[in-house]
Specification:
Elements (H helix, E strand, L loop, with lengths): L1 H17 L4 H23 L5 H16 L5 H24 L1 H8 L1 H20 L1 H4 L3 H28 L5 H22 L11 H6 L2 H10 L7 H7 L3 H12 L5 H15 L6 H6 L4 H16 L2 H14 L7 H26 L1 H25 L6 H20 L2 H9 L5 H30 L3 H19 L8 H28 L3 H12 L1
Helix pairs in contact: 2-8, 2-9, 2-11, 4-8, 4-22, 5-6, 5-22, 6-8, 6-11, 8-9, 8-21, 8-22, 9-18, 12-13, 16-21, 16-22, 16-23, 17-18, 17-20, 18-19, 18-20, 19-20, 19-23, 21-22, 24-25
C-alpha cells in the first residue's frame, strides 16, 4: 500500500511538472477566447444601452417608407424579435456543433465561424445607411449562430489542449472573456461614447474586429491533439501539436493516455445525439449536464440584470447615473470570474458550483423580501443592492463558468461533440425561454418571481451535491471510471439486486460478483 502511494505520488509530481502554462498555450487560450467568447458577451448586452435610439430608427424608417408612424404593438414586436433572435440563433448554432467539429476540427470550426460574425458586423454597421431595420434582426440571428458555436467549441478546444492540472483554469477563460465582452459593450454603450443616435451602428459593427484578428492569428496555432489522434488517427501531427503546446519533446505519457481513450472508445464508435441519449453508460453524465445548464440559465441571471436598473433607481440612484452602476456590476462580474480562474484548481469544481448556486439561492430569497419591504423600510433598498451584487458574485464564480468545464471533463472524445450539442442547446433554449417568459412572469408575480429562481437554484444544489463528482486534476479516463460506477453498479445493479432479492434470494450473491467484475 505504501509503495502504491509513493508510485502514485511520483506520477502525480511527474504530471504536475509537465502541466505548466507555456506561452503558446496561453496565446491559444487568449486568441480563441478573445476572438469568439468575447463576442458572445458583447452581443448579449450591446443592444441594451442604445435601445431607445434603435427603436427611434425603426420608427423613422417605417415612417419614411409608409408615410404613417408605426403602431406601438408592432414596434414592441420588432424590438422583442431583435432581442430574442440572438438566443434563438444560439440554439441553431449549438445544433451545428457536432457536424462541424467532427469534420472540420476544433480550430477549423472556430475559423469558419468567424465568417458569420464578420458578415453580421458589416450588415449591422451599415444598416442605418441602408435604412433597413430588417437587416439588424437578420444579423442578430447570424450573430446568435456564431455565439452558439463559439460558446461550445471554445471550451471544447481549450479543454482538449490543456494539461489536466490546468484544465479548470483554462476552461474558465472563455467565460472570463464573455464577461469582459459584456463590460466592454456596457462601457462603449454609455451615452457619452457610442450609446447615442449617431454612434449605435458603429457600436453594433465593432463586433467584427475580434473575429478579423482571430482569423489572421489562429491558423498559426496547433489543432487539438486529441482530435488529430483519436478522430483523424494521425499520431505524428498529434505529437507535434502536443510538443508545441507543452514546450518539450517528451509527450509519450499524454499520447499513451489518448491511445487508451481511443481503444476504450473503439467499441462504441462516434456518438450522435440520439445514441448519446439512449446509451446507458453515459446516462448520469448527460443528466448532470442538462441539470447544470438549466440551472445556469433558469437561475434568473437575466432577470437580475433586467431588474438591476430599477433596483438601483429605487435605492435613490439618479436615473442618469444608473448606466454607470450597470457598468460597475459588469466590472464585478469580470473580477469574480477572474478570481474563479485562479481558485478553480485549488478548490475544485464541486465547491465552486455549490457555493455559486448557494449564493444565488440565498440572494434571490432575500431579494424577494427586500423588494417587498422597500416601500415600508427605508434601508431595504440598500439590501436589495447587496443582493444583486452577491448574486452576480455567485453566478460568476460557479454557475456561469463551471458547467462548460464539466462538459469537457465528463465526456470522452467520441461523445464530447454530441454532449456539447445537447448542453449548448439546453443553454440557449433556456436563455430564450427566460427572455420570453420573464416579462410576463414579472408582470404577474412582481418581486415574487425571484422565488421561482430561488427554488431552481436550490434544486440544482441538491442534484450537484448528491450526483456530480469532483473532476479536479483527473484524466478523462479516470473521470469516466468514476461515472461508470454510478451508471452501471450503483444505479442499474442495485435495482436488479433488489429484484433478485425479492424473487430469488439465492441470486443476490451471484449478482454481486458480476457487478464487481464489471467494475
Amino acid at each position: 500500500m505504501k509503495l502504491k502511494g509513493k508510485k502514485q505520488e511520483s506520477s502525480d509530481n511527474n504530471e504536475g511538472s509537465k502541466g505548466k502554462m507555456t506561452l503558446l498555450l496561453a496565446l491559444v487560450a487568449l486568441v480563441s477566447a478573445f476572438g469568439s467568447s468575447f463576442q458572445y458577451g458583447y452581443n448579449v448586452s450591446v443592444i441594451n444601452s442604445p435601445a431607445p435610439y434603435m427603436q427611434a430608427f425603426y420608427n423613422q424608417t417605417y415612417f419614411d417608407r409608409n408615410g404613417v408612424p408605426m403602431d406601438s404593438s408592432f414596434q414592441t414586436l420588432l424590438w422583442s424579435l431583435t432581442v430574442s433572435m440572438f438566443p434563438l440563433g444560439g440554439l441553431f448554432g449549438s445544433l451545428m456543433v457536432w457536424p462541424l467539429v467532427n469534420n472540420c476540427g476544433r480550430k477549423g470550426t472556430l475559423l469558419i465561424n468567424n465568417l458569420f460574425s464578420i458578415a453580421a458586423a458589416i450588415l449591422m454597421g451599415t444598416s442605418a445607411l441602408a435604412k433597413t431595420f430588417e437587416v439588424i434582426i437578420l444579423s442578430r440571428v447570424i450573430m446568435g449562430i456564431y455565439a452558439g458555436l463559439a460558446s461550445n467549441v471554445v471550451p471544447m478546444f481549450l479543454g482538449e489542449i490543456s494539461p489536466k492540472n490546468l484544465r479548470g483554469a483554462i476552461g474558465v477563460v472563455p467565460q472570463l472573456f464573455i464577461t469582459v465582452g459584456i463590460l466592454v459593450a456596457q462601457i462603449l454603450g454609455l451615452n457619452s461614447i457610442l450609446g447615442n443616435a449617431e454612434g449605435w451602428p458603429v457600436l453594433l459593427g465593432l463586433t467584427g474586429i475580434p473575429s478579423a484578428i482571430q482569423l489572421l492569428i489562429l491558423p498559426f496555432f496547433p489543432e487539438s491533439p486529441r482530435y488529430l489522434l483519436i478522430q483523424k488517427g494521425n499520431e505524428e501531427q498529434a505529437r507535434q501539436a502536443l510538443q508545441r503546446l507543452r514546450g518539450w519533446d517528451d509527450v509519450d505519457d499524454e499520447i499513451e493516455e489518448m491511445r487508451r481513450e481511443d481503444r476504450s472508445e473503439k467499441e462504441e464508435g462516434q456518438f450522435t445525439v440520439l445514441s448519446l441519449c439512449t446509451f446507458r453508460g453515459l446516462r448520469w453524465q448527460l443528466i448532470s449536464i442538462i441539470v447544470m445548464m438549466m440551472g445556469q440559465q433558469l437561475s434568473g441571471v437575466n432577470g437580475v440584470f433586467y431588474y438591476a436598473d430599477r433596483i438601483f433607481q429605487s435605492a435613490g440612484v439618479d436615473s442618469n447615473n444608473v448606466q454607470y452602476v450597470t457598468v460597475s456590476i459588469g466590472a464585478i462580474n469580470v473580477v469574480m470570474t477572474l478570481l474563479a480562474v485562479f481558485i478553480v484548481e485549488a478548490l475544485g469544481r464541486r465547491i465552486l458550483l455549490l457555493a455559486g448556486f448557494g449564493l444565488c439561492c440565498v440572494s434571490c430569497a432575500v431579494l424577494t423580501l427586500a423588494l417587498n419591504l422597500q416601500t415600508t423600510v427605508s434601508w431595504m433598498s440598500y439590501l436589495s443592492i447587496v443582493c444583486v451584487i452577491v448574486y452576480i458574485i455567485g453566478h460568476a464564480i460557479g454557475a456561469s463558468p463551471i458547467p462548460f468545464v464539466m462538459i469537457t471533463e465528463m465526456f470522452l472524445q467520441s461523445s464530447r461533440p454530441a454532449a456539447f450539442m445537447v448542453g449548448g442547446s439546453v443553454h440557449w433554449l433556456c436563455n430564450f425561454t427566460v427572455g420570453l417568459v420573464f416579462l410576463y412572469m414579472e408582470a404577474g408575480l412582481g418581486p415574487y418571481s425571484f422565488l421561482i429562481f430561488c427554488a431552481i437554484c436550490l434544486a440544482t444544489i441538491i442534484y450537484i451535491f448528491f450526483i456530480v463528482p469532483e473532476t479536479k486534476n483527473k484524466t478523462f479516463m479516470e473521470i469516466n471510471r468514476i461515472m461508470a460506477k454510478r451508471n452501471k453498479v450503483e444505479i442499474q445493479d442495485d435495482k436488479e439486486e433488489l429484484k433478485d432479492f425479492q424473487t430469488v434470494p439465492g441470486g443476490q450473491a451471484e449478482k454481486k460478483e458480476t457487478s464487481n467484475s464489471e467494475l
